[in-house]
Amino acid sequence: MPTRGASPNRVKLHHSYSIAELAICCGVHKNTIRHWQGRGLEPIDKSRPILFQGATVRAFLCNQRARRKRPCTHGTIYCLRCREPRQPALGMVDFLPMTPTSGNLRAICSQCEAIIHRRARWVDLARIMPGCTIQLVEA
Ligand SMILES: [Zn+2]
Questions:
Q1: What is the pLDDT of residue 67?
Q2: Which of 68, 83, 89, 135 has its CA 20 to 30 A from that of 15?
Q3: Distance of CA 77 from the midpoint of ligand 1 (Å)
């Protein structure tokens, strides 16, 4: 299965792995290891059998994991349908207070028009949603 299930910490740093060993260690199919090679996982050298250094594998997996994360930059809310951070349509955002200090931002995705949500603290509103019109919505 995808890299998602492969925990970098299962790979021993000072161990070298064949493709088969690495597949077992990470709980993935051998073809997945070849796929990782295509995405930049480097073997120790060009000799056969192909061996991977544990430290290299772990760095690769950590890197892949970091790239999958899509942090929301200021002015965006993550859209589950687009799977991307998106700007609110027309720069309009509702704020629904949940606690005395925080609440939920609610807007419409500017790309696909799905409802998008983001948790936010009162004090952060102007900073994380610059240029947006924020409307307070009482429960
Ligand atoms: Zn969207």
A1: 81
A2: 68
A3: 9
